[in-house]
Fold this protein.
Amino acid sequence: MPLRALWESLLERLFFLPPFPESIDSLALFSLLLVVGLLIGEWLHAHARWPKVIGYVLAGILFGPSLLGWISIEALAQARPIADAALGLLMMEVGRRLDLNWLRSNPELLRSTFADITLSFVLIFVFALGLVGLTPAWAAATAAVTMASAPAVVLLTIEESRAQGLVTERIILHTAISSAASFVAFALVLGIVHAEQSEDWLNAVMHPLWVVVGALLVGGIGTWLALRIAKTLPKGSLAQVFVLIACALLAVGIARMLAVPVFLSLFLMGVLLASRDRQQTLRYTELPEGHWLLAIVLFVIVGASLPWQEFTWLAGLQALGLLLVRAAAKAGAMAWSGGSLPLPKRLLVGMGIQPLSATAVFMAYEIASLYPEVGRSALTLPLFAAAMMELVGPALCRLALHRSGECESGDRSRGGIA
Amino acid sequence: MTSKPLGVFKDSAALSLGVELELQLVSKRDFDLTRGATDLLGSLEYDERFGEIKLEITESMIEISTLARSTVDGIAADLVGLRDTLRQHCERNNIGVSGGGTHPFHHWPERRICPGDRFNELYQRYGYLAKQFTVFGQHIHVGCTSADDAIWLTQALGVYVPAFIALSASSPFVDGVDSFYQSARLNAVSAFPLSGQCPPLGSWQEFTEHFAFLQACGIAQGIKDLYWDVRPKPEFGTVEIRVCDTPLSIEQATSLAALAQSLARWLLRNRPPLHTAKQAHVARYNKFQACRYGLEAMISDPVDFGQIPLRQTLTDLLEAVSEDALALDCAHWLSPLKQLVAENTGDAAWLRAKEKQHGNLNDVVREASDRLLGKSNHSQGKTT
């Protein structure tokens, strides 16, 4: 390479020069991912009115190992801490929005969330076991990974649409509850996979415990610290925002050190923050707009992580089948559960909770990494389902919000928000 | 736009009452205003036994209106019934409800006009003012047996507009800052071209001529276009007092209705001279004084000249109508107003005290919501 040769020739004369850089610096990579994702997301949003998230994922697919290869596997590993931080912050936000009091005061919501969780898990499990032919353990893993809606996508789509109203609130609640249920299923599945793959009962019991207790501990420490420090600062001040972010990032770091899933730890931290904050210390403290910056990088990385190079038509059809079963389960749950919200609106909630994304991908890789020789191929199904939903999910969620009449109106003369 | 005829004045039972309260729909997450009134009402199953629950101009507002009642206790029962119906339905949908004349920190461009021809027409006509009209008032209807009585009472009650403003003032915060006003809400109403006082008209005949004149000039299409402080409402057969902020509690709203009923009886019984032409010169100034200073306002007297402290006027007024309140069996509802005047424990003072206590406005709305919904133990006007 002439540039390398030139550099090395200069290196002999200019002693202050560092060796020729073998890999891209993390910060430079971060900024490149950011700019590329941003440009594609903004372009699609401006020209086709697509949700920006789709653009970020497309940027990842385009520049990732599957297509152009500009983002290498090593670069992906290098960018993982940033993705963890982004996902962690978004999961904490979703956890903070899990309003258990609302569930207690409205039995119809208990019914509909329970129906969503149960139907989604059971139907996907049966599909993976019976039609795709996975073993019970991997079928359960597939169901655990794909049963929930995608918290990050839902939250960002709602923020982008500035949606507000009864359908929006139910979409958030269903997403948070189904995420919690999928994390429980995920922990149980870890044990089942160990039991099936190695018959190692110690790991089969201890690993799920490690994940759940560890995540609870990490979330608890983050919550305790955040509330303790924030209490000494003025409510709603910028200092409190920084404390919240710093404590969340600390929890992300500890979770990574202990090999406890970041998404679970931070989700629990969010739930604890919402339920333990009796003096409203951090209740009104919101993440700054800057968290979009991290979210862009997250979705570019998720896009690049999708295994499109392993795509086969059969795998694609199976994933499509899974998505249809999952969609039917969610729509059926909403239709069956009844309640004061009219059926068309409940079906819009069902449409709004279709996204499947980053958490599913991270969960799938987490399980696959336990037994890499079989895990990767066994989890192709949920990964392709997530890959397809990455592109369709945000659009469905946005359509549901738009149809419900709860998001920003493009026509300013009709009285929507500007 | 088509003009609506005024119609005949529907006589109603003397001194019958009706109360409308515009309420705030707030998010339980941060207690900012939230949207959702249309869906909320769409999913409400309620047989209207206490009155109506209706949409208002933006999705963040909801209006409750009682049935026509002959007694204040009847109004109180309706308001509690309506409040509890709304509370249960809002709890099922995770929405909070609060009183107060303004939301202390909402961002008006985020408001959304409710669907419907009338609301859209208002938005087209008034533009951003329609969104800024996300303010919350109490309207009190007093029944009249004749159209001429209604016009006379409209004029007579005009003098007491500062009293109702000061007693109900609950909007000291706007856009997240202390406005220095006790009732900043009325500043949003003043921006509308047909707001203000009813002109000095002496009879129903003069009123219909004046209204026909406004219609002929293309200024007003229907009676609803007149945003007067006090106006006749022919289809109900009432006079409507429209200057009150929505109080922070149902009890305070009931007390204001008791004052309106007692005062109307006292006025119709004593028929004091009105001096409407002279009052017209000081009405805006007196209204400003009451909005800005509440009970500390200095009210100009265009007849005997000079200024009188509103607190003094109110003390005398509450004493004067005591006999009528007894006759109407609502004297017990006036006692809290007497205490409010004596101890300066109005809603605006309560809101400011809460802001001082918490250092933020989210918690102020949280406590105000609890107070309206009867979840807190605040006695009338207590600030701690």
User: Anything to note?
Assistant: Chain B has 15 helices and 13 strands. The first helix of chain B runs from residue 37 to 42. The two ends of chain B are 51 Å apart (CA to CA). Chain B touches chain A through 39 residues (CB under 8 Å).
